[in-house]
Amino acid sequence: MKKHKTLIVFLWILVIWSFLFSAIKYFLWQDLSSTLNPDLQTLAWYLSFWAVFAYLIWWAIAYSFLKKYVLAFLSWMVFLLMLFVYFVWIKSTFILAFIVSFIGFLYWLWVVLRNIIVSIEIQKTWIKDTKLNALVNIVFIVFIILWTVLGSKLSELYAHNGILAILGLIFILFILSLNLDYDNVCLKDWFKCILSKKYLVEKKLAFKDSFSKFIPEIKYVYKNFFYLIMTSSIIWSIATIVSQKAVEFSVDKFSIQASSAGFVLLYSSVWAILWNVISSFLKNRWKSFFVLNFIMSLLILLFIYFQNSFFEISVLAFLLWLIFGASTNLIDAYFLTKIWEEDKKEYWSATYWLVFSITLFVMMFFASFIDKTWGFNILMIVLAVLLVLVNLIFYRIK
After folding, report:
1. pTM for this prediction
2. Options 3.40.50.12640, 1.20.1250.20, 3.90.960.10, 1.10.10.10; which CATH number does 2-397 get?
3. pLDDT at position 90, please?
4. Burial class (CB in 10 A: 0-12, 13-18, 19+), 260
């Protein structure tokens, strides 16, 4: 039990960060519907905008600062931003873009650190890579969907005051972050660091020295694993876009509340859990991966033909998340194992999410453009074709 202590704390931190990424987006979508009326693609685009810049400096941060202090700092900054949102009514698109983008900047710093911690836990607990990554994916998927529903419900029930619940969870996140012991520093030492003005610095590698390794390390990772990182990023981006459109499409066409439409994804997550687990027992990783992606492409196309009722959308979303859960676990668990073997956790994880953030940023922008210009059906066709092409290219390389 002792060797799993940090894993348990980490999973609780993952639960709350999942809330921040999903509930804030959907809460603002509902909260500002009568004023700025932003769509989900736009808010997701804002969240991913500064991610690129986050990863450009994260290499040095991950090597130079204690993990627990970085996590505490990130949660405290999000707390201050949401406090601003609560007391200052947002009436400007520029201010909205700045607030959401900055929260996204902090969130993507957390995402890189999340992968580093998963890699550490694989070695620390000796749990099989696909099984531990499946566990992390299960927690992430379940709670990002659950928080989507609850975020919308908070806005419907309590309107703007629902932010108070968000602030409470962020404060809990701050406390949990200080209780991680990866760096072998107890809670009281945090106050000693502040008094001595050392703050976050770890005596491992100076910030400027670690930052100077950025170019050589990023070249190495891109040269050896770019095709793997790019494939995973596109799959995650496509699944994110389709999921958001399923909710938004249901609200617009069937005139149901956002919280009710969010149950589409909640139901889907049940089978995503099962298939994350099943994927850890598959014998041939890459053949299974290719087959699952082709099935996922077909499911996206079926959204064009089965959109006459909320039930049909729900069934397709359920099947899509079933396949997506297994596919991403197979490729991501492989990558997490490799970054530990090469002893480049911080650099490799940052590289992965740098590519992911750029991919998500670009795809969200074009998805919003295609949807507004040619409609939902054309968007589904484009995403399905893109997934097939990516799968074929990856198959040829492997």
Report:
1. 0.63
2. 1.20.1250.20
3. 79
4. middle
